[in-house]
Amino acid sequence: MKKYLFSLVALLAVAAACTKEETVVNEVSNDAPVFKAYVGETKALLEGNKVKWEATDHISVWNGTQTADYSTTSTGDSADFTTSDEFGSAGSYVAIYPYDGSAVFSAGSVTTTLPAAQTATDAGFDPAAHIAVASSTTTSLSFHNAVAYVKFTVPAGMDDLTSVSFKGNNSEKVAGACSVNTSTYALTATGSETATLSGTFTEGSTYYLAVAPQDYSAGYTVTITRTSGTYEMVSKATSITFERSAARDLGNLWDGSIVLEGTAVASATPMTVVAGTSGKIQFHQVYSFRGDLTAGKLNVRKSYSSTAFQSDITIPADGNYHVMYNMTTGRFKVYTQEMYVDFLRGDANGASVAPWKMLRNTSPDTVDDTAPNYTLIDYDGNLTGARCDVSAFPAGSGDYKYNGTNGNDKSMPSYYADDEEWTKGVLYDGLQIFKGTGSGDSEELSVVITGLNSSAKYDFRLVSARFNASPAARKTRFTIVGLTTYGPQEVYQGWKPANIAAMSTYDLMSIHKLDFDGISPDGEGTVTIKMKGIDTGTRADAHLNGLRIAKVL
């Protein structure tokens, strides 16, 4: 098979033709039936490219007792396949592409091989690895894709690339011997833990590596081999699903350039560590490092965007720093003294998940609603001297202290955005200004942060959500006051997932977060977060679930 560019209109026309065209059965001299084979997958395999038959294609067809090698001399969305083998007509047939003389057919499945070693094909895939199956009670065969694809682009300057390998981080089988269900087209690999694409690669071109579609429970690793060295791109250590007949796009391959210069000692962290040419990098346009850097200069030397180049960032020798690439701004930043505040006021619905911390007065981790001026701690659990005053939200008021709707922080998975890990559990509980049915905006209340460095700048990220509420029913307006006034910005709160699966894929960062960057505290080191519920005609409630404060270096 070969892929060609196609339009949606053309694809729909092909689908219609496949359903309306009557099958024409011609007989050859050996009385074997002629099969008309269609590219039956109505979903575009390669996101804008369509698979079509080539004149040299062969398929294996099974009639329940015999297997034959069928070939075509046609090209296009459908093609007639014939055989010179002895092969009889039957009440049902199973077929597989590409032809495999060793394939074993049985009721409901076919055993074949997904090559662990695949050949690089410019702007496409290795045809030998594009496993597709069909089953039919007629001589009309509609083929369906059985594999998933890793998609990547070779960046400029990588003219010495020799291979790209893929493996699951939990020893999943990704290629080799496999079986395909002929009803669901689900492929299960039992052979190799690695699949490798090798050959000649062209800078700027896109390639596809076929792998078994499944959940990779601990993420996956892509190994890049060049004549100049070998290095890895490592995904987040969380379950990632590769779907049948779909391609997961890695974007540009990391080219191995030094991302951070300096001596680094990695600390325990859920984020990917970058430490020189032998390091590892999290690759969805996110460069993250956390560790103790030596005093001196940090040079950021490579990124996806030329505008992100920065150098000679001074690193003091006094603590822990986090270097992050912000996808929105296209710039690197260096943070220190990051404080993650979960406005969950008790642990009835589960303790906050790191790096989020509940408000506390002192160590140990206790919450005392009678003393609402809480000392904040940093990412590593150290007291910072900064304090969070939530006295405007009295503990005994149901209007001002929201306990969530069946909240359970413990069970919610983490979500990664830009530079950091967020737990969806922070969505459940928090501060609330209750107004009720639309009758004007709510009053304005404030959360006051004191003890900040008056000569520093801070980035504030606010999460504002109301679980199990209609998406547009609640809206909060935030204004931040420090040395000057920042904002206002507004955000809708409601999210009502249909089920647990919907919760696990909910993109809170694109919907329920607001960023206030470069905030200068006033001369006393104070920043005030003002919040007000805006009348939507349904409600006028305001919510604040979580807060990140990060000192910008």
In brief, what are we looking at here?
The chain is mainly β and 553 residues long. The chain contains three helices and 47 strands. It has three domains: 2-252, no CATH class; 264-327, no CATH class; 338-552, Jelly Rolls (Sandwich), CATH 2.60.120.
What does this structure look like?
- By secondary structure, the protein is mainly beta.
- The chain folds into three domains: 2-252, no CATH class; 264-327, no CATH class; 338-552, Sandwich (Jelly Rolls), CATH 2.60.120.
- It is built from three helices and 47 strands.
- Strands 24, 26, 29, 30, 31, 39, 44 and 47 form an eight-stranded mixed beta sheet that branches.
- It is elongated and about 90 Å long.
- It starts with a strand and ends with a strand.
- Mean pLDDT is 74; it is low at 2-29, 42-48, 258-315, 361-365 and 405-410.
What is this structure's SSE topology?
Layout: E1 2-5, H1 8-20, E2 35-39, E3 49-52, E4 58-62, E5 67-71, E6 78-81, E7 93-97, E8 104-106, E9 109-114, E10 117-119, E11 132-136, E12 140-145, E13 148-153, E14 161-168, E15 176-181, E16 187-189, E17 194-198, E18 206-211, E19 215-216, E20 220-226, E21 229-234, E22 240-241, E23 247-252, E24 264-266, E25 280-281, E26 288-293, E27 296-300, E28 310-315, E29 320-326, E30 331-342, E31 357-358, E32 373-377, E33 383-389, E34 401-402, E35 414-417, E36 420-423, E37 430-433, E38 444-450, E39 457-463, E40 466-467, E41 475-481, E42 485-492, E43 494-495, H2 500-504, H3 508-512, E44 513-519, E45 527-534, E46 542-544, E47 546-552
Parallel strand pairs: 2-12, 10-17, 13-23, 21-25, 30-31, 40-43
Antiparallel strand pairs: 1-3, 2-6, 4-5, 4-7, 7-11, 8-9, 9-15, 11-12, 13-18, 14-17, 14-20, 15-16, 19-22, 20-21, 24-26, 26-29, 27-28, 29-30, 30-47, 32-33, 33-38, 34-37, 35-36, 37-46, 38-45, 39-44, 39-47, 41-42, 41-45
